[in-house]
Amino acid sequence: MVTPAPLLVLTDRHQARRPLPAVIAAAVAGGARWVLLRERDLPVAARTRLAAELRELLAGVGGTLSVAGADPLGGAAVHLPAAAAAPPPGLALVGRSCHDRTELAGITGEDYVTVSPVWPTASKPGYGPPLRPRGLRDLVRFSPVPVLALGGVESASQVRAARAAGAVGVAVLGAVMRAPDPAAVVADLLAAATAPPQPQEEPV
Fold this sequence. Notes:
The protein has one domain: Aldolase class I (TIM Barrel), CATH 3.20.20.70. 33% of the residues lie in helices and 17% in strands.
């Protein structure tokens, strides 16, 4: 399985500096081609409308919208929490959040996983302990499917470290949602994510 893109942008309208569609539009302008809609606290009807709006933004560039949870909200891509049931049948793309070997051992029909937290994250202070690149590398080697590094990814050097650890890409939330210029942040992280991985020392 090849993931849709090496950079997955996760949404959080509570952290976004502008209305969420505007932030995602800017991210798409910066090169984002894969977005994960979270916003689980929204009513189903409102979340479905938001999914349609973001899907339309991505359709113009051949992008993919994944939806957190088992309901793809009119699409064909979902991202499941670690403890969720087996992936629903008939979907084009299924991911799952994982944090350790036990959760990775339960992977069945998923196409990829996110592994977190790789670094301390402002979105979930105290969540962890962080894996750091060394822990990420261990889980990448154990995982039966491609791994995206999630948690505290804010810089190109972190993206390079994640790629050097074997991750196929990174998943980013706060660095894009809180950015004054989401397009510039995405372009910077994407350049690092698409460069050939190079062995390097682990950052602190």
